[in-house]
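pasting for the record
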Amino acid sequence: MNGDLELYRIFHTVAYYKNISRAAEALYISQPAVSKSIQKLENAIGVKLFMRSSRGVTLTSEGKILYDYIKKALDVISDGENILTQLKNKDQGTITIGVSTTLCKNFLLPHLKPFMNKYPEIQIKIINNTTLDTLAHIDEEVIDLGIVSHPLTLPSYHYIDVAIIQDIFVATKSYLTSINVIAPNDIFSKCKFMLLETSNITRQYLDQYLIENNIFIKPEIEISNMDFLIEFAKLGLGISAVIKNFVTQELNTGTLVEIPVIPSIPSRSIGIIFSKKTSLSIAAQTFLEYYKTALGNTL
């Protein structure tokens, strides 16, 4: 591109006002500076752009062609600046979030409506997938943020803790009575277990706990969705390993009971992750700050 953007902006202003004095006033620069800039641009592109007279200036035929293109370019720049202003003011933006079914239902959705009420112009797109797929989508820049449960090895990602969760074993009181569970760890030798599939991060965390405590169990049912584990437990089919935070209603009503074990499973966290290779958009930063504030009392 011959010349710089400022020269084209001055050219556009002079063409609009058809008068160097008025253009200088609008640009807050001197008339000689305007004339010098026009001359510099004409020399750079090798074309005469204005015809001068006592009444002002008019565009040459070549100047009219350039003006049409410069006007379109400056309009596009102005539109871009307006969009950035809207983004900065949280009046526009799109966030794509990757999250598993369980975390979407029990963690994301309860706080999503208040966020959308506060920032109605920010669009939310949710990609429901496993944690491993969420990590892959972040690497591929398909999503902006992922919501995952710890622990994970995350050298390529920023991980922000936003909530503490507790894994527990649950069953119906009638099932435990029928099996005659008395001591805390009786369940491991007497009961049927229903667990998530081995590829699930939560299942891997549980398996590590069992290994460290020399406990061996062979699950009767393995499934990909924790909601189904909860329902199976409510039917009295055995013991499910679930996240306590997601069965508070069942525990409060007595539909399920928590089974204490020794030692208890260590608590862990849910967090929001994003790539270290890319910077977050203003909309994504707004979402992250909102969730950190909304869930700050759960850490």
